[in-house]
UniProtKB/TrEMBL annotation, chains A, B:
GO aspect biological process, one term: purine nucleoside triphosphate catabolic process
InterPro entries cross-referenced by the UniProt entry: dITP/XTP_pyrophosphatase, ITPase-like_fam, RdgB/HAM1
Gene3D superfamilies in alphabetical order: 3.90.950.10
Residues holding Mg(2+): E40, D69
Primary role: Pyrophosphatase that catalyzes the hydrolysis of nucleoside triphosphates to their monophosphate derivatives, with a high preference for the non-canonical purine nucleotides XTP (xanthosine triphosphate), dITP (deoxyinosine triphosphate) and ITP. Seems to function as a house-cleaning enzyme that removes non-canonical purine nucleotides from the nucleotide pool, thus preventing their incorporation into DNA/RNA and avoiding chromosomal lesions.
Annotated binding of substrate, by residue: T11, S12, N13, E14, N15, K16, S70, F144, G145, F146, D147, K167, H172, R173
Phylogenetic lineage: Archaea, Thermoproteota, Thermoprotei, Sulfolobales, Sulfolobaceae
Subunit structure: Homodimer.
HAMAP family in alphabetical order: Non_canon_purine_NTPase
One GO CC annotation: cytoplasm
Organism per entry: Sulfurisphaera tokodaii
Entry annotation: catalytic residues: D69 (proton acceptor)
Name of protein: dITP/XTP pyrophosphatase
GO MF annotation terms: dITP diphosphatase activity; ITP diphosphatase activity; metal ion binding; nucleotide binding; ribonucleoside triphosphate phosphatase activity; XTP diphosphatase activity
Length: 189, 189
């Protein structure tokens, strides 16, 4: 059993930390930002990537921690770019994905987050998903990553056309983190 | 200094082992095949990937070893698919790359291999490259990976249209391995 409820979050992206922290505060869970890039293995599975990242990080810092990773999975492209979403954003960009999708009717896609919690006693992976489709064109300049070409089900706008509160209603990262919190509150009680 | 000249090769691809072994035999270097997938970190740099793979493998088997990784780097696509070549082959395939290259004049690309040797005393990375271009269509059914859409400079045929001896004349993997051998023969003498 844990003595403290402080949990370290390993990420070099301050916005991700802030997004999680704004949720954690509602539950009185204290997060601490560790500004480090996570060590990532090559794998088709986000769960496997965060699990190995988290174990490696735990072997260094030896206190409870979270690692998360997110990706865009496009059905007609065999789930490409999946775990390599950041790399593909930097190389092919939004236009590259739209080019690959030219003439393809099935535009189904989802964003997914996998989040791993580790401490001395447990290792658990939680996931969150938002299902939607790839837009026909780039729309909006808000958000980051592939937000301007992703339309969540139940909306007509891309994530790039939404402000942060609107986007958070759908957030895959938020969903994964809420799953963690459900577990964690029981675990520490 | 090494007592023996046996070097382990970590790969789950028997063809890669055979390709290296056929070269090693000419120099009287004994290779031993360890049939294991290598542990791969996510990185834009093949050198970094093989270096970390090799160190991790050495911590397990504790005897001299080699790990190699290869990728296709396309100039007009910011070097995509690079270190994620196998993943992109499985998801987008040959047609996906040709679609991304539609209407693009600059078709320059290269295949590169990075190969890391580790023992108790040294860790060294060697590279080999073959420069060429992406073809306009899929041609030939020999080889593997992206061979049917890659034309090496100095030839008109794709790697997919060449037999193994013809392809080996250009081989990036062979070049990297020859670099290793140059080092190794001096090292053990």
């Amino acid at each position: 059993m844990l003595k403290s409820v402080e949990v370290n979050v390993i990420t070099s992206n301050e916005n991700k930390f802030k997004e999680l922290d704004s949720i954690a505060k509602k539950y009185n869970i204290k997060l601490k930002w560790i500004n480090l890039p996570k060590f990532e293995v090559q794998s088709d599975s986000l769960e496997e990537i965060v699990r190995s990242s988290a174990v490696i990080a735990f072997n260094m810092i030896r206190s409870p921690l979270i690692v998360e990773d997110s990706g865009l999975f496009i059905e007609a492209l065999n789930n490409f770019p999946g775990p390599y979403t950041n790399y593909v954003r930097r190389t092919l960009g939004l236009k590259g994905i739209l080019k690959l999708m030219e003439g393809i009717q099935n535009r189904k896609a989802y964003f997914m987050t996998a989040l791993c919690y580790v401490d001395e006693e447990v290792i658990r992976v939680f996931t969150g998903k938002v299902v939607g489709k790839i837009s026909e064109s780039i729309r909006g300049d808000k958000g980051f990553g592939f937000d301007p070409i992703f339309i969540p089900d139940g909306d007509e706008r891309t994530f790039g056309e939404m402000n942060i509160e609107e986007k958070n209603k759908y957030s895959h990262r938020g969903k994964a983190f809420e799953e963690f919190i459900k577990f964690f509150l029981t675990y520490i009680s």
